[in-house]
Amino acid sequence: MHSNPVPASTPWGDDVDLAARELAERYVAARRAEAVAQAAVARVLAEAAELAASRVAALPRASAKDAELPVRAVAAELAVAAREPDGAVQRQMGEAAVVVREFPAAMTAWGEGRIGARHVRVITELGTPLVDPVARGAFEAEAVRQAERMTPRRLRAALAPMAEEMQPGSLTERHRAARERRGVWTTMLEDGMGSVTIVQPAVIVDGIHDRLTQQARAVKNLDPTDTRTLDQIRADLAADMLLTSTPNVETGEGLADGYGGLGAITAIVNVTVPALALAGVTTEPGELVGKTPIDADTARELAARAPGWDRILTDPITGSVLAVDRYTPSAEMKRHLRARDRHCRFPGCRQPAHRCDLDHSIDYAHGGKTHTGNLAHLCRRHHTLKGETAWKVTQHGGGVLQWTSPGGLTYTDQPPTPPHVRFVAGAELDDGGHPGTTRTAEPPPF
How many CA atoms lie within 13 A of 89 on its CB side? Predict the structure, then answer.
């Protein structure tokens, strides 16, 4: 019995696929160039960290707060020039300084394109706890050797046992210290989505996932017609529990308020939406203020559940805010500025306005007036940066801010274009049918 050979022209033939090989070679070359460029960025960041450290050292008896200000100022100088968040640049400065100072072999391999940024991250994360220079040097040499032939994930698995053996303290002691770094972070993703990262001891994280899995399977068993995947049900259950569950204890010493402690805290949703989208005429997205766009259906759902709206009238041509429905001067001014700014006005920052301070561009103590042409929302980080470092801001009318860095570079921050209608979940009407006080509204169950 004879079999027909597979033609060499097909993708699964025995002949060498020269096109695929060429792509692979070009890909490897591009990734090596990328690694070299990333290493060059890390060296610049490390130099910036060194410059900031020298300025901190020159301060006479600096407090912890004063000592951070030169670091913030240098980070902001780099970040605004590159159109990046200054907080992230400040963190990267610290990380780069550790690699350059403590892991020279890894830095050299990275700069030559022999390993990538993810390899370096694994090496530094596992090697940093090794305080003995001899042990760290031996670990680094072996880590670089293995990194040149492994993926980052396999590298971590290969190095973790070796790093554990070289650790000076017990795992119990290190775990106790690591617990102090637990926390929760949010990241806004594309298409109106977001993620929540929770850092807790591994046993708790595993328990959380296991409980969600068991509950998700129970939901599937109870309703075989449910078309959601197990992952989707887990995500829905986690969101439902975090948004609606009430803690059954007064969490933390000194936090009891007599009204349920943490159980009295509910979510506040601050959203903007175009009027035509609200009416269902268009599908223009709304916005989770200062964070990310949201789809029109979600915005309409939030609007339907809001006890009341705050209406803002805008110029039909320029979109500039003209008036609001509040008549108490101070409240009207605040609402006008929240509508104009919507988030922190330092270049690149997106901290929502309701979490920011209203700052006088020209200090009140120096004759600055309390009016909308001299006020802007700044988050606490950038409010401090403006007040305590050489960063300066000037207003040019219409909410346009011009920032000048300590290095003399200037950056213009334009106010966001406001939507025609804005509502805030939680606003309610007074007895006369006018916008009155606000209260927390229950978020939608999705």
Answer: 25
For tokens 């006369």, name the residue: 432
Q: What is the pLDDT of residues 219-238, one digit of tens each?
A: 888 888 889 999 999 999 99
Which residues, at least 6 apart from 129, have a Cβ–Cβ distance to it below 8 Å?
163, 167, 174
**Whose CA is closest to 390, among 94, 91, 76?**
76
Task: Please give the distance of CA 102 from its chain centroid, rounded to a whole number.
Answer: 27
User: What gap in Å lies between CA 58 and CA 420, rounded to an integer?
Assistant: 51
CA distance 169 to 291: 42
Residue 290 is given by DSSP the state T
Rounded Cα distance, 88 and 260, in Å: 36
pTM score, two decimals? Answer: 0.63
CA 17, CA 5: separation in Å to the nearest integer?
17
Q: How far apart are CA 140 and CA 115, in angstroms?
A: 13
* 107 φ/ψ angles, rounded to the nearest 5 degrees: -65, -40
Per-residue burial over 177-201, b = 16 or more CB atoms within 10 Å of its CB, e = otherwise: eeeeeeeeeeeeeeebeeeeeeeee
Task: Please state, in angstroms and rounded to a whole number, the distance separating the CA atoms of residues 288 and 198.
Answer: 21
H helices present in 148-201, as ranges: 152-166, 171-179
What average pLDDT does range 123-149 have in this prediction?
Answer: 93
Both tokens of 159, joined, read: 């190095």
Q: Can you say how many angstroms the Cα of residue 131 is from the centroid of all Cα atoms in its chain?
A: 31
Q: In angstroms, what is the C-alpha Rg of the chain?
A: 28
